[in-house]
Specification:
single chain, 6-stranded antiparallel barrel, globular, alpha+beta, 3 helices
Length: 130
């Protein structure tokens, strides 16, 4: 591991600690059940995305979009979470660890979804069995 990379990771961790974040254990996220209703309640809230190269990045859950299907399956609940992040650094599609004060640490798969000069948008798709 390069010294620069180690310093970025340490800096992100110190920044999170300095902001007074109460980063809970994985047990909190295991108690949380992902559903459309539970995800809707999180809209507007801030999260920390732990990027392996760039450290802790502040992101906000800005909306929940319902899936539009030609033949919806009543057994499935499909929706997408839309996050806004700073425009730089640009993140590639991948699975990232997130921290939230109430949920603790959990992983979500993100796909770039555009944006503008003020922010970058990322989407996390869910297909849940009812």
């Amino acid at each position: 591991m390069k010294r620069r990379h180690l310093l970025k990771i340490a800096g992100g961790t110190l920044a999170a600690a300095g902001l007074g974040l109460n980063i809970a254990t994985a047990a909190a996220s295991e108690e949380f059940g992902w559903s459309r209703a539970n995800a809707s309640a999180l809209v507007g809230q801030a999260f920390w995305l732990n990027h392996p190269e760039f450290g802790a990045l502040a992101v906000t859950l800005v909306s929940l979009q319902e899936a539009v299907l030609k033949k919806p399956d009543p057994r499935l609940d499909q929706f997408s979470l839309i996050f806004h992040a700073p425009p730089a650094p640009a993140m590639a599609e991948g699975t990232y660890d997130f921290d939230h004060p109430a949920l603790g640490r959990f992983a979500l798969h993100l796909t770039p979804a555009g944006g503008n000069g003020d922010h970058a948008s990322y989407r996390s798709d869910f297909t849940l069995l009812n």
